[in-house]
Specification:
Length: 107
């Protein structure tokens, strides 16, 4: 919650080889938020774009809220519900996980 300033963050794993910027790549800055974890932001507006970790090379965690085009997919699950805000109630029937679905996912 602290990293995103929100009750939740909608993100999706993307293979780096399948991802490309159509424009504005020169406006993207990455910084190392902790050893081996990098967060990318737009220099102009500050929007979070993706994160990546050295432990999983070739994968970006794309912040899907930054996309203009429809994804054609909806949410699949709720992760890290063990640390969700007490003022936010999950009202759907999607699977919920206290931490992450995969034990090797450091995002």
């Amino acid at each position: 919650r602290r990293a995103h300033g929100s009750a939740f963050s909608a993100s999706a794993p993307v293979q780096k080889v399948r991802f490309r910027f159509l424009s504005g790549e020169e406006q993207v800055n990455e910084f190392e938020s902790r050893p081996g974890k990098y967060r990318a932001f737009c220099r102009r507006c500050g929007s979070q774009l993706y994160s990546r970790v050295d432990a999983i090379p070739g994968i970006l965690r794309l912040r899907v809220g930054s996309l203009n085009e429809p994804l054609g997919k909806g949410p699949a699950q709720h992760v890290y519900v063990g640390s969700k805000s007490d003022w936010f109630t999950i009202t759907d029937d999607l699977p919920q996980f206290e931490k992450t679905e995969r034990t090797n996912d450091p995002h």
